[in-house]
Backbone:
């Protein structure tokens, strides 16, 4: 199956990339991740000074990761003199060099990094929300390179479409959506202590919790800004998630937190699982998914749940969660009653049924993931 995709002339054998972070923090790590089959590599963000990273700096639950990392803890000289020259010789997939932050940083770094980059990814995490500043950063990079430029959108930017428009007007080719979300925090009640964080005591959150937000950002930017390319990132953990991001408007995707939560081999599992996921949804190539339009039906009249009594285990989850007190389950009589006068048609019962015995409300096939 053809998994290839093209980002501003840069050809990827498949759309899966690592997201910027510790797993792409030097040449050894990058070459390891390449061997897992990804279509391209992004580096840890390089800036004009090495980051002083607080420790501890990474924690994770089952559905999210938290981090107090900043950018690369290695000085730019190490990247320019050692890491990137080795990668130029040995790396076989395209290299997106992640760089941050101010226009002064770009003046200094981009000329030195240009020969190593197939494209630039630019973190805007620490430059504030002023779109004029974003525009100046892009224009400064464009002065020093002909390579594709992808501006990384942080979730705290209030006007993502405006961000993408300014980026494009100043010479960017695309947007990477999104960076981690914050500020957030972690408290240990037993120790009466903030568990970890930077100087401000806060951390960034990422991983599967972030996926709905990331999908919406991808969709907004891809649909509302003509000619912008989007790389989707945020919470991806399965090949099915990749298909969702491609349908939302991404031409490629990145992930990091799921590898931190479940292990680095997730990259291999996702790349190898992509053909089966495409097949399952009736697609024959990544390109076909990218070119597919999404439909949507807005309506205000309720549909009521239909219960498949052959599947129902009478577990009462639907009864317990129904916010309108409209479903009643009678295990002894193997009966489920939907009170259509009370049912609001909200859909929650269908999404929470553990055995997929409810249909007819949410316009979707299969189980809510
Ligand atoms: C430990 C850690 C370090 C990160 N470091 C960077 C970084 O240096 N530059 C950057 O642009 N994003 C960085 N990110 C953000 C990720 O690249 C990514 O945008 C975000 O985590 C959402 O994707 P995910 O849910 O797949 O992790 C980091 C995230 C984590 C968890």
Residues:
């Amino acid at each position: 199956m053809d998994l290839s995709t093209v980002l501003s002339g840069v050809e990827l054998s498949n759309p899966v990339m690592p997201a910027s972070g510790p797993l792409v923090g030097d040449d050894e790590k990058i070459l390891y991740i390449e061997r897992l089959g990804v279509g391209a590599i992004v580096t840890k963000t390089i800036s004009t000074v090495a980051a002083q990273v607080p420790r501890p700096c990474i924690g994770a639950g089952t559905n999210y990761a938290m981090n107090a990392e900043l950018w690369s803890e290695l000085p730019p000289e190490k990247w320019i003199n050692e890491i990137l020259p080795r990668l130029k010789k040995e790396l076989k997939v395209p290299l997106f060099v992640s760089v941050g932050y101010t226009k002064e940083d770009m003046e200094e770094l981009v000329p030195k990094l240009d020969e190593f980059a197939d494209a630039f990814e630019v973190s805007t995490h620490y430059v504030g929300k002023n779109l004029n500043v974003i525009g100046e950063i892009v224009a400064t990079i464009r002065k020093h390179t002909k390579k594709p430029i992808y501006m990384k959108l942080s979730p705290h930017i209030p006007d993502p479409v405006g961000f993408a428009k300014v980026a494009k007007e100043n010479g960017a080719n695309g947007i990477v959506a999104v960076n981690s979300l914050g500020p957030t925090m972690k408290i240990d009640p037993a120790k009466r202590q903030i568990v970890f964080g930077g100087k401000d005591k806060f951390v960034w959150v990422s991983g599967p919790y972030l996926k709905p937000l990331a999908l919406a950002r991808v969709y907004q930017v891809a649909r509302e800004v003509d000619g912008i390319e989007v790389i989707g990132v945020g919470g991806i953990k399965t090949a099915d998630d990749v298909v969702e991001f491609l349908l939302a408007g991404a031409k490629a995707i990145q992930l990091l937190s799921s590898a931190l939560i479940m292990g680095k081999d997730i990259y291999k599992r996702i790349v190898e699982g992509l053909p089966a996921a495409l097949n399952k949804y009736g697609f024959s190539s990544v390109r076909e998914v990218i070119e597919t339009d999404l439909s949507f039906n807005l309506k205000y009249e309720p549909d009521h749940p239909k219960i498949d009594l052959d599947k129902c285990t009478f577990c009462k989850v639907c009864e317990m969660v129904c916010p309108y007190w409209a479903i009643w389950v009678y295990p002894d009589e193997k009966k489920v009653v939907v009170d259509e006068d009370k049912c609001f048609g909200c859909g929650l019962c269908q999404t929470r049924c553990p055995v997929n015995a409810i249909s007819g409300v949410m316009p979707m096939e299969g189980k809510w993931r």
User: Anything to note?
Assistant: Residues 306-359 form a domain with the Alpha-Beta Plaits fold (CATH 3.30.70.20). The first strand starts at residue 5 and ends at 7. The radius of gyration is 23 Å.
